[in-house]
Amino acid sequence: MKKTTLMAAAAALALSGGIAAAAIAAGQAPAAAPAAAPAAPPTAEEAKAYVDKAEKDLAGLSEYVNKASWVRATYITEDTQWLEAKAGAEFTDLATGLAIGAARFDKVEVDPVTRRKLDILKRALVLPAPQRPGVADQMATIGSRMDSVYSTGKFEYKGKMITLNDAEDILAESRDPEELKAVWEGWRTVSPAMSADYAQLAELANEGSRALGYADTGALWRSGYDMSPDEFAAETDRLWQQVAPFYKNLHCYVRAKLNEQYGDAVQPKTGPIRADLLGNMWAQQWGNIYPIVAPKTDDAGYSLDKLLVDKGYDPVKMVKTGENFYSSLGFAPLPDTFWTRSQITRPEGREVVCHASAWDLDDADDIRIKMCTKVNAEDFYTVHHELGHNYYQRAYKDQPFIFKGGANDGFHEAIGDFAGLSALTPTYLNQIGLLDTVPGAEGDTPFLLKMALDKIAFLPFGLMVDRWRWEVYDGTLKPADYNKGWWALRTKYQGITPPGPRPDDAFDPGAKYHVPANVPYTRYFLAHIYQFQFHRAACKQAGWKGPLHRCSIYGNKEVGAKFNKMLEMGQSKPWPEALAAFTGETRTDASAVTEYFAPLNTWLIKQNKGQKCGW
Ligand code: X8Z
Ligand code: ZN
């Protein structure tokens, strides 16, 4: 959990931006409560000693908690859920006590390193628990259960019980609107079972967050960015405004193409887009419908899905290829244990969490991925994404325990995506023998359109998931309105609508992994901006003079070395310093996104002429 960037676990977890993941979830009164406040104000020496001991205690428990979570995520049974919840609650107890104890030093003048560690300790929990006996266990149990319900969810389709993986394949490939609707709705029959659990967990986490001095759990989540929670919310608004006009152009173009494909009765020419027509279970990345929206004149020249199959790739070869990319930048090969301990494909005969994640079990060398890899372009990309987490974890392994984390959680998500931006270029695919001929300029619009279907389409989704949770946590949304509130945001930001009326008991947020797993989501919105800032800076360092989308840093050891310098910092410094170390910039800036896609935006505006865009 700790460094697990995406922890499935119940109780908890996922803290890539902070201390241990595990800490993150529930927590009750610490078994051994921190010492009661002494009569005299505490001293700077006491603060330092407190932090040193906290690091030792947390590090001491971390591997055990991580292993319990790993076992549950790769072998879901009643027993492994029990073990994970027990270990998670223990860790949370410890972390909760340490967070409360850290507040004692709020007014003490301490050195900057100790201050930063105290601050991180206070906000390290994703779901803090109230200090009442048994509540940490209760929260950890609910968390583990929700994640397991999601991960083992199945529904009947055409007389067969199918998994999320099966359903995703149908959403990606089928062009039959009746079938799409049935499968989209079918997956959402799994989540109503979680809604009462979700509401209860939210209420308890809020109580825990308030005890730590935060307005609510949303404010706690927004406090991890070296600025105030309100400033951070405003910052995400600012970034969204930078990219929203481009998203609207893409939405307009895609809607027109879907209308051509399906007709007015299925996809009208105006208004929101039907969510099940976009090739993805959550309409979060639209690359799978590229064939429907492909430009009539220009040809992409290749399909990565097809190349991978034609060249005989298997899941292990995909991961080896990902490793080779990082090696070309100068990163050391993955340890042998990575290969013997990772879960690369879905195992037979047992239930597992298939949602991809990267793990660091021992806060040092025992790094692994857990995927149910399929041989397709999407997972080729995901492999680079997950390995990015692992290389980050290894780069900061010599930092003190509390600083082992991403500069912020968005950085953690952006590392592998940054690698992926180079690894998807035709030039790179050609260099590694996947693609025989690199297309000329005629390939640019198709390439950029495909990228935008994933990267630009994602932005409003990346934003709205936590907007919904912020409203849950601040009380704007009551449980009875959870689903209505979800769709209000889906429509407002993404311009999409469900394929039919939603049942009264629907809990559609629960059909997206990160909601039952309690993994904060704004990190992915940020990552979709940082990765372009990293890419622009890297290409500049490499002396690249062409368009950004054609730049690949494959094989560039100087860029790799400089990148590694940023990774090695972990979260020891405020994130603007980490950003500056690699890019020279100190602000999050979506101009790198608009620069990368500028030729496509011009093209979209031309295609959309005469259309009434917006919804
Ligand atoms: O959850 C993930 C990664 C693991 S950290 C596979 N992602 C988000 C998602 O799938 O919803 C990557 C992109 C967004
Ligand atoms: Zn990730």
Kindly report the spatial arrangement of strands forming the biggest sheet: 1-2
Poorly predicted parts: 1-34
* Average predicted local confidence, pLDDT: 93
Beta-strand content estimate = under 5%
Helix content: 40-55%
Distance between the termini: 40 Å
Please write the string of helix (H) and strand (E) elements: HHHHEEHHHHHEHHHHEEHHHHHEHHHH
Q: Given the C-alpha coordinates, what overall shape results?
A: globular
Number of helices: 22
Q: Which hetero ligands occur in this complex?
A: L-captopril, zinc ion
Based on the model shown, name its key terms.
disordered N terminus; mainly alpha; binds L-captopril; 615 residues; single chain; 22 helices; binds zinc ion; two-stranded parallel ribbon
Task: Give an overview of the whole structure.
With 615 residues, this protein is mainly alpha-helical. Among the domains are: 2-150, no CATH class; 304-438 and 524-574. 54% of the residues lie in helices and 3% in strands. The protein is built from 22 helices and six strands. The chain has helices at residues 44-74, 78-102, 112-123, 135-151, 164-173, 177-187, 195-211, 217-221, 229-262, 290-293, 304-310, 315-328, 336-341, 377-395, 409-423, 426-431, 444-473, 482-494, 522-541, 557-568, 575-583, 591-607; strands spanning 154-157, 160-163, 273-274, 357-360, 367-370, 496-497. The strands form three sheets. A two-stranded antiparallel ribbon has the order 1-2. Helix 2 packs across helix 3 (112-123), helix 17 crosses helix 22 and helix 19 (522-541) crosses helix 22 (591-607). The model is unreliable at 1-34 (pLDDT under 50). The site of zinc ion has 5 residues, from helix 14.
